[in-house]
Structures are given as C-alpha cells and as structure tokens.
Amino acid sequence: MLRPRLLTILCYGAMMSLAIGVNLLPIFLTSFSTSFGGAHGLSQEQLGRLGAFSFAGLVFGILLAGPLADRWGAKVFALAGNAVMAASLIGMSIAPNYWALSIAVFWLGFGAGILDIVLNPVVSVLNPERRSAAMNWLHSFYCVGAVVTILASTVALQVGLGWRQASLLLLPLPLALLIIFGFLHFPELVHESEQAGRSPMTHLLREPWFWGCLIALFLGGATELGMAQWLPAYAETSLGFPKWMGGAALFAFSVLMAAGRIVVGSIGERVNPFIVLAWCCGSSVLLFLLGSFLPVPGWALTACIVVGFTGSALWPTVLGVSADRYPAGGATMFAALAAMGNAGGILMPWIVGWIGDLVSLHWGLAVSALAPLLMLPVVLILKRTRVCKL
Question: Would you call 295 exposed, middle or buried from its count of C-beta atoms within 10 A (0-12, 13-18, 19+)?
C-alpha cells in the first residue's frame, strides 16, 4: 500500500543521506592534504580533482540509473543508492593512499547520484499540485544533511577521532534507510494521470525550452557547488581563519541554504518562480565578488556564507519549473537535468582550484561569479517564453 506522506518524509531523510556523499569531502580537504601529500601537502589542483571525482561519480550514477528507474521502478535504486553509500563510507575510512581515496570518493558520489535520480521524481509524483514548492522542501533536507555531516565531522575532529572515524560516524543513516525502504511500496515515476502522455527523452531534446532548463541547471550547480566545495579551504588558507572556522563557515552556509529553500517552499506559487530565480542569480553575483575581494576577512567570509541563502533556490526551482512544463518526463528527464547540474559541480570546483594555483583562491572564487551572471539571462528568457512552444 502506497503511503505518500510517510514516503515523502523518508525521501527527505534519504536526501540527508545524499548530502553526506557531497559534503563530507570539503570538510576534510586540508586533512587529506596532510594525510596524503607529504611534507608539502597536496596541490590545490589535486584537492580540486577529488571534488571532480566525487561529482563524476554523481553524474555517472544519475545517467546510469535515470533510464533504468523508469523501467525497473524506484525502489531498487533507493536501496542500491544507500547500499553503495554505506560501502563507500567504509572504503574511505580505510583508504591507504590518494588514489584509493579518489576511488572511494567516486563511489560515494555514485551512490549519491543514484539516490538523487530517484528522490526527485518520487517526490514530484507524490506532490503533483505543488511541484516547485515540494522540490524546494526536498532539497532543504539536503542542507539539513549537510549540517548533520558538518556537525558530526567537527565533533570528531574536536575529540581527536580524525577523518577516518568521522566517515564511520555517518554510516548509520544510509544503513537505516536501506532497511526501512525495503518494507515500503514506491509509486510509478510518472503520475498515473500522465502515463498516456509520457514524454520520451528524444521529444524533450527537441524542445529549446528544455535546453534552456539544462543550461540553467548547469550554471545553478556551478554557482552552488563552486562555493560549497571550497568555502572551508578558502576560509583557512586565503582568509587566515583557524581550521574550526572553515567547518563553521560551511555549517552556516548550509543552514542558510536550508533556510532559503524552506522560505521558497513555503511561498509556494504565490511568487513567480522565475522572479525568484532572477533575484537569486543577481544577488549571488554580487556576493561572490564581495567574498572574493573585500579587504576585511570577516566581511569577506560573511559574504561567502550568505551565498548559501541567495543561491539556495536555483537548483530545486529549475527542477520544479521543468516538472511543471513536462510533468510526464519521468526519471529520465530528472536524470538529464541532474546530470547537467552536477556537471557544473564537477567543472567549477576544478576551475576554482586551477585558478587558485595560477593566481589565488580569491580570483578562483571570483571566476565562479560567472555562473550566476550567465544564468540570469537564461532565466529571463525562460520566463518570457514559458507559455510558448518554441
């Protein structure tokens, strides 16, 4: 028997599990540098490459699971995603060198990608009358998961456990979800009222409006993850704050991101979602530049943290407006969108590290401002043409 409210709540919990796969890495970048880089530590490019491995796994999981989930159903992939994440956390905890860690990080991202492609369409189907709001609520629990990950990791460091033990502290959540999901029934990934109008991917790829959504989500992912992946290291190495402050900054960033998504989710359809997207893009550009170049470290760090609020709604709101325009897109549509968002998450942290090696991390983060700047006209075009068949 399908229990929509219970399953929606558990999907929120699974989004917290997904957040472990994305947020564990940036907290320990400087620790990985010390553990595997010898006397001089790892280069910023090598640290950025770890983030790229993580998001490459995420995109691979999304692209593999998306088309198969439409055929085989969501349940098998909800179970598989949590199982892979649990195994990868164990693998991280015993990694003997940089390359073993890279492999574990890739598979951790892979498990998160499988969950990502299941949770979005399941919640969309369970909440057909309020998709944009439901997407923001779902993704707010990603931020809650990030906060839990940061707290557990920070406590582990404070009591002297280290990053290997911190990986194991987070193991109970995916294991618990693996067990609970085994007893639940999942819905079809296209709402039964829309089954007859199923939108194949070949049809969507002929739609210019859908390509606009893909580009917007790529830039939204680059906006969010360019800052999130580098914030702790930037606070420590470029702004001169102590190690604990880097973790605290990412914690505050995640809290504000959760708050932003809850606000947008609570507003629902009372405000045009494209106006929300445009506001988020413009304010994020300004805050990226302030965080990169303000001469007072405290104010610069504050600007970086507030990007968590202004950039919070970009990803889930683009998912929501896409699902409203193409309600019969299924998991394959969400896979294409999520893959593009995470491709931005692969590219931008790597670019930030590369620019950081060439010039400085200040300029690396400044370059990240290009993502919301380029997203703004895309959003405005989507707004103007949303009721038209291009």
Answer: exposed
